[in-house]
Amino acid sequence: MADYVHGYSGTEGGRLADQAAVLTELLHHGVRYPAGSRVLEAGCGVGAQTVILAGNSPEAAFTSVDVSPDSLSEATRRVYAAGHTNVTFARADIHALPFPEGYFHHVFVCFVLEHLPDPGRALRGLARVLAPGGTLTVIEGDHGSAYFHPDGAAARRAIGCLVELQRRAGGDAELGRALYPLLAGAGYRDVVVSPCPVYVDGSRPDLIDGFTRRTFIAMVEGIGDRAVADGLIDADTFAAGLRDLERTATADGSFSYMFFKAVAVR
After folding, report:
1. Could you give the C-alpha distances from 234 to 153, 157, 174, 223, in angstroms and in order?
2. Residue 1 — very low, low, confident or very high, per pLDDT cuts 50/70/90?
3. At the top level of CATH, which class does the domain 10-148+170-199+257-265 belong to?
4. Neighbours of 26 (CB within 10 A)
5. Which of 134, 128, 136, 132 has its CA nearest to residue 105?
6. 79-94 residue pLDDT tens
């Protein structure tokens, strides 16, 4: 797996939880699994999505895997604190899944492929453990889709640093727009990709705080030191970019971003 550009700090874990909470209705709409289903969550991270999955499908059996033992420990704590008992955790690499062929009825992948140097390879590996006729759900963002008012050159430069750092780490921060060709190229059928837009303005103070500030701006802010150290931007310009982004989170500002959700059949 590529380097996780956002890092594994407690702050990042909190940001992921905030993101999952504020986007639950948007991203998990229609994601329900029948009783008795075996579902693989590939790349569960700190369990931010796991809690939602387990709660929405209490009679399905989830296996949630990740390469980071620290993330798995936090995911386990988070899920059990929520009272869910239908999740089993395991440390595993998405490229070397230790499960029999066709074992799972469904697979769920959220904000994972964007961090991989070869997402097509990962998708082919997931197909191996997915039963014929089973479904794969993939959710990814696209940092190139961010639009805001007032616009600001420094803000765009700061966002561009995030995209570039992820590229250097082997990932693709704009992968959302490529989901259809990726899935079709990996051999999946009946691929349907749905855009999931988030639009925030002064009429939605919950999203101003939960998405614009605590999800997106926090994500950009988290790579500031690294961007400056790598010579992508100077500290003053990055700070100006953060101020530009904060300006979009005021009563007369606005912010929009596009997620992409794909469902496909093995």
Report:
1. 14, 10, 24, 13
2. very low
3. alpha beta
4. 14
5. 134
6. 999 999 999 999 999 9
